[in-house]
Amino acid sequence: MGRVDPSGRNRYDAVRKCRSLRRWADGFAERWRDIPAGQRDYWNWKIPMPRALVSAPGARLPVQKVCAQALVDAAWRLSQASSPEMAHARVVAIVSFPDMFASEVCAFLSEDYFNGFCERDDDDQRWAPMPASNGLAARLGLRLPAGFQERGYWETCRDETADPPWITEGEVWLIGELESKGRA
Questions:
Q1: What is the mean pLDDT of the chain?
Q2: In 27-175, which residue ranges form alpha helices assigned H by DSSP?
């Protein structure tokens, strides 16, 4: 299921990498301590998976499902472990799909930063809202914890100054604490 090296063996063992990813997600209650004192807007943890397993051409839907669920589970564990000092923070899994390499768990430490995060509408990057009826959770069979919501965007990125110019498109899904809970 991974890339094949010249000897004919898989470079990555998808089953082992997925087990390792689940252990990563299971330990997320302790991740608040990773955030440096004085951090203002947000802190993130990128998905610890090789690009070859989560991006084309090597990505396989069963592995992507495991990855998406692990991100949601990690966000839930982090949310549940929030200390009184971090009660204002929102925790969200950001799932890029189908190219999942940019996926992450994000703790938004500023309500203003969170509110402006999805406002991406310039020549380099656009996020257009996607209909809720085509949600990633339903398509992948993800289990969302109570209180978690999802919001999707169609992302278009371009660089006209590159040689040659390029454009990429895909989905970005925020899954987590999206609704205001009256936090300061």
A1: 90
A2: 51-54, 61-80, 111-117, 136-140
Which amino acid makes up residue 135?
G
**Which tokens sit at 182?**
């009256």
Secondary structure class of 117 (helix, strand, coil): helix
The SS3 of residue 152 is strand
Extents of the domains making up the chain: 14-176
pLDDT tens digits, residue range 140-171? 999 999 999 999 999 999 999 999 999 999 99
Tell me the C-alpha distance between 68 and 136, whole Å. 9
- The number of angstroms, rounded, from the C-alpha of 171 to the middle of its chain's C-alpha atoms is 11
pLDDT for residue 17 is more than 60: yes
What are the tens digits of pLDDT across the range 71-102?
999 999 999 998 888 888 999 999 999 999 99
Query: What does the alpha-carbon distance between residue 72 and residue 68 come to, in Å, rounded to a whole number?
Result: 6
How far from 126 is each of 10, 113, 169, CA to CA, in Å? 37, 17, 10
Q: Could you tell me which residues come within 8 angstroms of residue 99 by beta carbon, excluding any fewer than 6 positions away?
A: 54, 55, 56, 59, 168, 170
pLDDT at 179: 87
Rg of the Cα trace of the chain? 17
Report the C-alpha gap between 108 and 120 in whole angstroms: 17
Start-to-end CA span in the chain (Å): 46
